[in-house]
Amino acid sequence: MEIRPLITKFIKFGVVGASGMLVHGGVLYLLKEQAGANPFVANTAGFITAATTNYILNRIWTFRSHEKQVAVEYLKFILVSVIGLGINNGTLWLGGRLLPEWNADWRFYILWVVAVGVTTLWNFFGNMLFTFKNK
Fold this sequence. Notes:
The chain has 135 residues and is mostly helical. It has four helices and no strands.
């Protein structure tokens, strides 16, 4: 693959990811801060909600998929996202273990942004090479 189309796809993926980050962060905040949910449960709910909206936008805009088996493609996207969720929660867990004082208040969200960054790389390449290959 040429580098320019790859960069364009990554930028589009990033724009979609940014919208997903807002969805994810909104659900996370509402569940963790307003409903008092466990941070990992709230993070998981936010991640799944964002993964669904991201699939739709990436299918239409980033990868321009015309795959007729939408359910299969969606399940592939969710599989990549679930692995990404493990990477995301693992990064949060590791950050909380290494910096336990960062597990509270606003500092938790700094760890979350780092976790999102790590997960983004996995999600882009996982989806490009598995979910939307040859798109």
